[in-house]
Design the sequence.
């Protein structure tokens, strides 16, 4: 539950710049391209630090690494409230990325170490609920607060409240189990992990699924305000509904996957199938948004939010099954690096496309086409969703290895 709450805080703090963008852009005189750079700056530090974060988690443990990370990102969030220009905001966003880089390696390591395969869908789904409700709260509560008090107070309040999470975390996790201490021992080197074809399949699939999600997370407020003329308050409600749909899709997907696995379903066919279904739906819905009028576009965005959620449980379960406790944090570090390259390029590409075309149609079509790559990744690149025999891998000569045991 605390991991889900940390993920909730993570995404509330991460997404509040997008909520503030209609007000902040006018006050500070920022262009669409500059806003795209600010949205992207978070990922300049977040993405490349993922492998290091995975190594730190397995070396020092989830308890300490996640606590330090949250303290850093809360500081970065609050500091945005004092910024008066582009470069100050850029620095704050990069500090936020440094702190938040430890979240998903910590989640992966904990679930792979402590839960059986038939319980990971629900756990990943619960964490994904936190991921969805974070932007919901950030968009709704942050938007309403900004409309009433201005954007600066929202950053200060969100940053300060984030630090309160440390109190129950440090109390509940004061003693780590022997199994968790064993699991973070450096048993598998990055060289062995990087030689797995399945790693690059999960990385490309994560990237393809993330592109449309990060496009929505960063540019949805401006899309609603500038294209469809919504007020900041109305935008907050519509944006929150998109993420509530994600929060609905995630636990339903996780529960269904766990139930099917408990009844003897093949993990490879089941988990890949759910991912392909969700990615295919997002592909169609993003293309539809490019061509639809306002009411239909909003309906399609709500459906896309649901399928963003559906992806979350099998995505985590596939990684945790393949990697196992010996290397879950490191694997997720590399995978999340690949996945969050989407966060680096999606805001920039979107800002440039809007400046050149004057509309959001091209960005929606780009998101649709990139999502198609995820279907290829999960259907073709990942040979089989089975636990990798790392001892056997260590005895083989270095090359690109299959994930089959």
Sequence:
């Amino acid at each position: 539950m605390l991991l889900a709450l940390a993920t909730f805080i993570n995404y509330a703090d991460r997404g509040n710049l997008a909520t503030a963008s209609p007000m902040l852009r006018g006050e500070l005189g920022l262009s669409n391209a500059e806003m795209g750079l600010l949205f992207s700056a978070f990922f300049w530090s977040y993405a490349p630090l993922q492998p290091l974060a995975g190594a730190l988690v397995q070396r020092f443990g989830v308890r300490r690494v996640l606590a330090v990370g949250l303290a850093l990102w809360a500081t970065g969030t609050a500091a945005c409230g004092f910024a008066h220009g582009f470069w100050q905001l850029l620095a704050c966003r990069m500090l936020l990325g440094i702190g938040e880089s430890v979240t998903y390696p910590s989640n992966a390591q904990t679930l792979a170490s402590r839960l059986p395969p038939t319980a990971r869908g629900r756990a990943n789904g619960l964490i994904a609920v936190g991921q969805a409700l974070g932007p919901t709260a950030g968009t709704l509560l942050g938007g309403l607060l900004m409309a009433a008090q201005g954007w600066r107070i929202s950053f200060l309040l969100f940053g300060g409240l984030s630090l309160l999470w440390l109190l129950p975390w440090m109390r509940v996790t004061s003693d780590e189990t022997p199994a968790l201490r064993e699991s973070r021992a450096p048993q598998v080197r990055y060289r062995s992990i990087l030689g797995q074809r399945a790693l690059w399949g999960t990385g490309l699939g994560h990237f393809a699924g993330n592109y449309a999600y990060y496009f929505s997370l960063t540019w949805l407020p401006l899309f609603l305000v500038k294209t469809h003329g919504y007020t900041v308050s109305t935008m907050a409600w519509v944006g929150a509904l998109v993420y509530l749909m994600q929060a609905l899709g995630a636990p339903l997907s996780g529960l269904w996957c766990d139930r099917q696995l408990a009844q003897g379903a093949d993990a490879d066919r089941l988990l890949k199938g759910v991912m392909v279904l969700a990615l295919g739906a997002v592909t169609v819905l993003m293309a539809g948004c490019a061509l639809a009028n306002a009411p239909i576009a909003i309906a399609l965005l709500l459906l896309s939010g649901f399928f963003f959620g559906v992806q979350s449980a099998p995505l985590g379960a596939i990684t945790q099954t393949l990697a196992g406790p010996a290397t879950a944090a490191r694997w997720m570090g590399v995978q999340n690096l690949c996945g969050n390259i989407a966060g680096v390029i999606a805001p920039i590409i979107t800002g440039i496309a809007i400046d050149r075309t004057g509309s959001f149609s091209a960005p929606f079509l780009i998101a649709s086409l990139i999502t198609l790559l995820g279907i290829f990744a999960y259907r073709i690149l990942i040979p089989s969703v089975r636990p990798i025999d790392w001892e056997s891998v260590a005895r083989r000569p270095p090359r690109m290895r299959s994930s089959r045991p």
Q: What stands out?
A: The longest helix spans residues 117-149. Confidence is low (pLDDT under 50) at residues 177-186. Residues 2-171+178-395 form a domain with the Growth Hormone; Chain: A; fold (CATH 1.20.1250.20).
